[in-house]
Amino acid sequence: MKKFLTRIAESALLPFLSVLMAFFISGILIVFSDTQVLKVIGSPLKFIQRASSSVFHSYVALFEGAFFDPNLAQGHSLWQGFYPLSETIVTATPLILAGLAVTLAFQAGLFNIGAQGQFIFGALGASYIGFHYSFPPVIHVILALLAGVFASSLWGGFVGFLKAKTGAHEVIVTIMMNYIAGFFILWALKTHTFLRPRRIDPLAPEVQPNAQLPHLLGTTMRLHAGIIIALLAAVFVWWLLNKTTIGFQFRAVGANASAAKTAGISVSRTTILTMTFAGALAGLGGAVHVLGSQYALTADIAGSFGFDAITVALLGRGKPTGTVFAALLFGALRTGGRTMEANTNTPLDIVLVIQALIVLFVASPSMVRFLFRVKNLRSQGTLASKAWNS
Amino acid sequence: MSLELRGVTKSFGALIANDNINLKVGDGEIHAILGENGAGKSTLMNIVYGLVQPDSGEFLVNGAPVTINQPADALAAGIGMVHQHFMLIPVFTVLENIILGHEHSNKFGALETTDARAKIMAQASEFGFSIDPDAVVETLSVGVQQRVEILKALMYDAKILILDEPTAVLTPQETDEFIEIMKRLRARGTSIIFISHKLREVKAVADKITVIRAGKVVATADPNSSQEELASLMVGRPVNLTEKKALHHDKPVVVKVRDLNVTDEVGRALVSHVSFDIQAGEILAIAGVQGNGQSELANAMVNLHEHVHGSILLDEQEIVGLSVNKSLHAGIAYIPESRELDGLIAKFSIAENLILDTHQEQPYSRSIFLSHKNVEEEAKKKVIEFDIRTQSIDSPASSLSGGNKQKVVLARELSRPVKLVVACQPTRGLDVGAIEFVHKRILEERESGRAILLFSTELDEVMTLADRIAVMYQGEILSIVDTSATREEIGLLMAGIKS
After folding, report:
1. What is the CA radius of gyration of chain B?
2. Which of B323, B328, B341 sits opposite A258 (nearest CB)?
3. How far apart are the C-alpha atoms of B456 and B439, rounded to whole Å?
4. Of A45, A269, A349, B206, whose CA is between 20 and 30 Å from B63?
């Protein structure tokens, strides 16, 4: 048990230090974007005082906006104070699923940049079944989820097929397929199949109540059952990778395709299967996003979920558990960032800077090691470049 | 120039890699350092070359003490090193590689190459190397690449040359040429520290031999000592190098290969019209200089190669055209040429590596569910049976020494019910103890009635193990001879000369 805990601590150390560094550097940016602080740059004492108070208030606002809002707690009820936490989880839910799509592919040695496109197809499939048909409760939402998963697994599996049969690099193919998916949804929302009646802007009808994911904490909080699906998916990915022959083959091909091939494992079959599973996961993210919080499909339904998914998977170090925590962190940053912008002089863009810096540090473990004088930090930070080279 | 090491000690944590080592290399002397893998030879040489800092100890060059903190200090003191794994940039030319780190530009700011080119040509002709300074390194054979490394060391006035396992990557012919080069260097007054575990080469060229075992100098031996004596000093126990071979009797033919052809994507022949039989309990060795189609033939045996035509019958079952998985499970054990690249997954545990090709079978799994309990139990048994030296079956394969890595591959492949064992260069890069183990194991497989197809570029190995020897040259089997053939006869066949 003790060994287990040290292992967890060891693998969480680098991401933790990276997050710390990112917040530190962003703090400097906050100072220099605050005109009130810059006014007093002439007198060092005042400057330091105002600067630290500016950074402190920004981060407090960020925290309150992401987890617990004392104003809401006072105005309504203590319970309502946790409204931001519910929002954080709602944002994190699709991110967990899309992140798992990248994580799973990492484990099999593939760099899946295509979570965005897969997410879009998941949302398309779920939305179509969701508004177009009428089924009894429970069954309808399950069918809608399955439709999303089905569409996106084909979309993802096709990339695997191309790679296995023609050797096309999955990075290039998935980037291109993201464009196709992005324009496909634009086009789809202009057809009569998807366009909401009497509307000309790209907007689909809302999914029917039976197809919506149930709220978990009553109607005042948006927290929905999607988070349970996302956590189950994370457990599933862990189980698949570690407890099944299929996962064994995924990891074998990811770690050394040549040895896997020599041992009789079909690399092309594994590649196709990996991308199908990855597509299914990202698509489930899209489906959950539509059925749990958006209800109506828009052209911008995927936002930047598919791209943040890559960051999340990197920060999660290619592990399902890590991915869940990374997605929650990103969900918190996004949600809290809005409150921070509203309540302080700090722009929302700082959140993007924090995210980018986290990735930068996670991707260069030797720099963090140097900054914090940490020895023997497990170097898995070259995950991305490894996947790229393979 | 002479070099003396006094009391060099280096420890990595609890492991003492070098324990109070004293060593004296005389002027114009070839001093062999003999030791098993992990004995501390490479650490010692990295210390001399300034790549590793010793805990204590001093260096004397020509009797005067010098400090070596980094490779630049070693170079300044006249010490050059040719590493086991070459430090060349594959896409650069020979010239570019040699001037790398010593580049000068002319007054127009362009790279100055005229002087360097002249110097390289002069050096090369002095040693009788034929080398094209404008050839791109990756297009050169391993033997020639090594000459580039040596030239590079000599260009910058190395008076003492450290050669770390230089023959590990060479073919028999290249090795012979290499030994000549060493002798020529010695005649010119260059001292050489020659690191090796190959006894025949050491005996052929060394003036003095220092044997290192477990970080200590255990003996200084004379090159006239017998191979058995040297091996015993290295391993620390008596070693029986020449294994006994029982006579084999006529048994049923297990493998029939008929008119096997392998081509590359564009249809060029890699293996042409190869036919042979192997009977139960027989070892057929495929000898030949590296790159004459052996790897492709070996790959074809389990369908790892795509363009294979002809027939391989294993107990009347056609193998050609099956998937790799089906070929293996038809009854073929496959020991690939490179343990690191094709045999093992470095970051997988030993237990996981032991089920790479059997993970879909009981008792390791049922439908898609892996049984970790059974995987671990079987792994524990195999670790004992094959004497795999490891702290735990959960350790990654990368933590093992070369010999133990090979034992993992052997344990995995030989534990399956197979009729044919295809072993490719099974002892390449291994030390004496591990070679002894692998040879014994192969002979045991032969005793148990399995057919064995052995690919080896080591003539010694072929002569020790084989019942019949097929020599490959340019993709064809020139001739299949029995063990009464002499080294010379086989050497001629390897060079493509058929009498």
Report:
1. 25
2. B341
3. 12
4. B206
Quick one: which H or E segment has residue B72?
A: helix B71-76
- Which of B322, B370, B406, B413 should one mutate to test binding to chain A, selecting the residue with the greatest count of A CBs within 10 A? B370
**B93 DSSP assignment:** B
Give, in degrees to the nearest 5, the angle at Cα B413 between B407 and B419: 135
Q: Are B169 and B146 in contact (CB under 8 A)?
A: yes
pLDDT band at A380 (very low <50, low <70, confident <90, very high): very low
CA B51-B54-B59 angle, to 5 degrees, is 90
Q: Least CB-CB distance to A259: which of B302, B341, B365?
A: B341
Asked if residues B244 and B430 have their Cβ atoms less than 8 Å apart, the reply is no
Q: What is the pLDDT of residues A166-190, one digit of tens each?
A: 999 999 999 999 999 999 999 999 9
Nearest CA in chain B to A239: B369
- By mean pLDDT, which of A144-158, B97-111, B416-430 is the weakest? B97-111
Which of B304, B346, B370 has the CB atom closest to A244's CB atom?
Answer: B370
Burial class (CB within 10 angstroms; exposed 0-12, middle 13-18, buried 19+) of B101 = exposed
CB contact under 8 A, A256 and B356: no
Identify the CATH homologous superfamily for domain B3-235: P-loop containing nucleotide triphosphate hydrolases (3.40.50.300)
**Portions of chain B given CATH number 3.40.50.300:** 3-235, 253-494
Please give the Cα distance from B182 to A297 (Å, whole number). 76
- Cβ of B327 within 8 Å of Cβ of A264? The answer is yes
Angle at A355 between CA A354 and CA A361, to 5 degrees: 85
Tell me the three state secondary structure of residue A156: helix
How far is Cα B350 from Cα B345, in angstroms, rounded to an integer? Answer: 9
Residue type, A245: T
The residue in chain A having the minimum alpha-carbon distance to the alpha carbon of residue B412 is: A263
Whether residue B243 is predicted with pLDDT greater than 80 in this model: the reply is no
Gyration radius from chain A CA atoms: 22
Q: Which pLDDT score is estimated for B479? A: 92
**What's the mean pLDDT in B104-121?**
81
Query: Three-state SS for B129?
Result: coil
Inter-chain touch B325–A264, beta carbons under 8 Å: yes
| Interval B310-334 mean pLDDT | 95
Size of interface A-B (CB pairs under 8 A): 69
Report residue A254 as tokens: 């990811």
Closest residue in chain A to residue B361, using alpha carbons only? A245
* A47 or A117, which is more confident: A117
Spell out which residues of chain B touch residue A382, defining contact as CB-CB under 8 Å: none
In A, which residues are within 8 Å of B359 by CB distance? 245, 248-249
Å between B418 CA and nearest CA of chain A: 14
Q: What pTM does this model have?
A: 0.81
SS3 B421: strand
Looking at residue A377, its pLDDT comes to 47
B453 has which bridge partners?
B284, B422
> What CATH class has B253-494?
alpha beta
3-state helix, strand, coil in chain B (%, to 5): 35, 25, 40
Q: Give the pLDDT band (50/70/90) at residue A72.
A: confident
B57 CB neighbour count, 10 Å cutoff: 17
Instruction: Say how far residue B9 (Cα) sits from the centre of its chain.
Output: 28
Q: B431, B432, B451: which is closest to B442 by C-alpha?
A: B451
For B149-185, write each residue's pLDDT tens digit. Answer: 888 888 877 889 999 888 776 766 778 888 888 898 8
Does the CB of A248 have a partner CB in chain B at under 8 Å?
yes
- Touching A: B residues 135-154, CB under 8 Å: none
Residue A305, SS3 per DSSP: helix
3-state percent breakdown (helix, strand, coil) of chain A, nearest 5:
75, 5, 25
For residue B241, what pLDDT band results from cuts at 50, 70 and 90? low
